[in-house]
Structure formats: C-alpha cells, structure tokens
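tool_log.txt
---
The assistant was asked to compare two proteins side by side. It first ran the structure predictor on the initial sequence, then on the second. Raw inputs and outputs are pasted verbatim so the downstream comparison step can read them without reformatting.
(1)
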Amino acid sequence: MAELQWTPGRDGGANITGYLVQFNTSDNPSEWINYHDEIPGKVQTTYVNLPPWGMYNFRVLARNKVDYSKPSNPTRQPCTTPPERPSTNPKDVRTQTHKKGKLIVSWTVC
C-alpha cells in the first residue's frame, strides 16, 4: 500500500470539489489509469493498493465546477512494489519426452 499526499494548487477562481488520482506503470508509461473514484476536495491524502512486481508513477488532477485541471507533474521517483509468491499453482502441468535424458515440463499460467 502506498500513501499519496499533495498540496492544492490554484483553484481557477472556484473551489476545488474533488481530486482524481491517476497512475501508470513501467510496462506502459504513456497510459494513465484512474485509480478509483474522485476524492473529495478537502482530502489531500489517499492510500492505494498496488499489485506486486510493479513500478508506478502517480499524478493528481483537481476539479472545480468548471472541469478538471491539467494533471500535476508525475511523482519524481516511481513507487516500486516488492515481489510476492504466486497466489495459485500452475494448471495443466505436463511432461514431454522426445529424447533420452531430456524432459520438458510445461504448464498453463492461471
């Protein structure tokens, strides 16, 4: 879990009513994904659950009665999550033997 905090910028002349947290991954850095529903305007901290084996960057957009702001600059350093053991066993484990002294094991990833 990561804790994100931000400081509000200029409100554009209308009160900020909410924030939208977005993230991207090192696998697809050009695609920004909305983390979850809009966060109320008085809140400036949120907690995000992140899958293992990832590198994530975050940015925040503010919203007032007109529309969303341009996104903030992304976080300076990516948030890296540690590896974790698999949650399930492989399925369809099978062996193939074509040559003496050689064994090939294959399986399906769940």
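(2)
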Amino acid sequence: GPSNIWNPSKGFLTQSTSPSSYDRNFPTTGSDGLYFDLDIGGIDGSQLSWTVNTSGSIRATVSWTRPRSGTFTDPWGSTVQADRWISDKSKNVTRVTLHGPKASSSQINSDNPSSLTRPSLPQTFELVGRDRSGNEVRYGFVLRQWFVNRTKSDTAY
C-alpha cells in the first residue's frame, strides 16, 4: 500500500488521533480471537494500564505479552511461523485481542445452525494506556464488519 498508510516493517500506520476520524485507522474488520500489536514509541509499554472505551457487544482486551512462537498449519495446509512479523520473540508486545460473536461447536457441526446474535456495527473503540506519571497513549479504530468462522477444522480446502 501507499507509504503513508503501510510500512513493510511496522504494518499499518496510525492515520488519525482524532476521535472523529478513528474510522481511518486499522482495523476495520474483525473476528473473535483475532489480534494486532501496537508499536508504541516514547513510552515504556510495560508500564501502561489500559482502559478500553466502547459500547456494543464486541470487546477488545489489551495485554503486555510475549509473542507466539512455533508454527501452525494454515487453512491451505501450509506451515506458517506464528507471529512471523516479529523478529525478536523475547521482547513483549502490546497486543489487542478482539472478542465477539463466534460459532459454537454445535453451530459449526450443524448443517442447519441456529443464528448468532448480530453485533451492532459500526462500533468505535478507544484504547487508553496510562502510566503512573499520568502520561497517556490513545489509539482508536472503528469496526465496520465482523466475520464468524463456521469452518470445521478438518475441512479440506
């Protein structure tokens, strides 16, 4: 993508710090369990306590965590390195994980599954990290779409 939106080594760049245009920031789509990492400069991420401001059925959690290591098999049968965009797996990251409607095992295994509660979209999120000195880091985004995976794990592609 354009260099003002995408950096090959850092990913999507912040497009707006103004709440009225958080819809310009990443991500705009989500699914239960998907996550992204915030690259925070000028402040020690380990010292931040996070508040997530939103209203709606979709939630986001922010954690200071070690990147995933090892490999997994993607839906197309390829072996993929976990968190492959992170070169140094020994350093913690600020990770935002999305939580929302997902299919239960009975819905996944049914040929005629019951419906899910549909989230009210768009839904705006503002993540506020504060350190003990009162310094703040804010990041906002707007989810416009929510996807639910109903694929059986043993399905061949």
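---
observation on (2): The mean pLDDT is 92. The longest strand covers residues 123-130.
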